[in-house]
Amino acid sequence: MRAIGRNPDEVAIVAVTKGFPAGVCQAALDAELTILGENRVQEALEKMEVVAGAKWHLIGHLQTNKVRHAAGRFALIQTVDSLHMAEAVARIAPAQAVLVQVNVAREPQKSGADPDHALELIHAVSNRLDLQGLMGMGPLRGDPTPAFLELARLRDDAQQRIGRRLPVLSMGMSGDFEAALSAGSSMLRLGQALFGPRPT
After folding, report:
1. Residue 32 domain-assigned?
2. 3-state SS track over the chain
3. In a domain, 200, yes or no
């Protein structure tokens, strides 16, 4: 991180443990990787029962029928991408910390709010939940830098609109974290870079 001008103390690492057994989660905690990221609610809940002391983040798409199981159980839900979802979470856990996911890659297979209309959603979510910032993913192919810079600009615009800081900018995974850091990421979601290939 220092090689690209970033202070490691300013960047949180989410250890993505999707698909790995609870023993790997415990090993991450033992290595002082205290934030664990899961894509699926049920898998996360099962690991929560046997792995103590982690801050669990939901980093996968949250389905409406899973909201009642997820709201209030995660330290941070990173994937709120609609007003409907925000309202569903708020009915169960109005103090839930969340990020708004924005599809800055503009790829139809990815979840996330349309960047062109995201400011309205961000403002609405900030009035319903504990909004901490934004989350986004780079494109499957090509340079991820434009997408990451767009998310950073959107965060800056959102801070001005709602009149307070949004400290979390969650962007960057194992294949593109250097570009994300250069664009201002404050939170990386790393799986393969930490644990190697996911078990099949």
Report:
1. yes
2. CHHHCCCHHHCEEEEECCCCCHHHHHHHHHCCCCEEEECCHHHHHHHHCCCCCCEEEECCCCCHHHHHHHCCCCCEEEEECCHHHHHHHHHHCCCCEEEEEECCCCCCCCCCECHHHHHHHHHHHHCCCEEEEEECCCCCCCCCHHHHHHHHHHHHHHHHHHCCCCCEEECCCCCCHHHHHHHCCCEEEECHHHHCCCCC
3. no
CB atoms within 10 A of CB 83: 14
pTM here is 0.95
Q: How many domains does the chain have?
A: 1
Q: Is residue 144 part of a domain?
A: yes
pLDDT of residue 4: 65
Q: What is the CATH number of the domain that holds 91?
A: 3.20.20.10
Q: How far apart are CA 126 and CA 133, in angstroms?
A: 10
Domain span including residue 6: 2-195
- Using the predicted structure, report yes or no on whether residue 5 has a pLDDT greater than 80: no
Q: Would you state the pLDDT for residue 3?
A: 60
Report the phi/psi class of residue 104: left, alpha or beta, with left for phi > 0 and alpha for psi in -120 to 50: alpha
pLDDT in tens, 40-81: 999 999 999 999 999 999 999 999 999 999 999 999 999 999
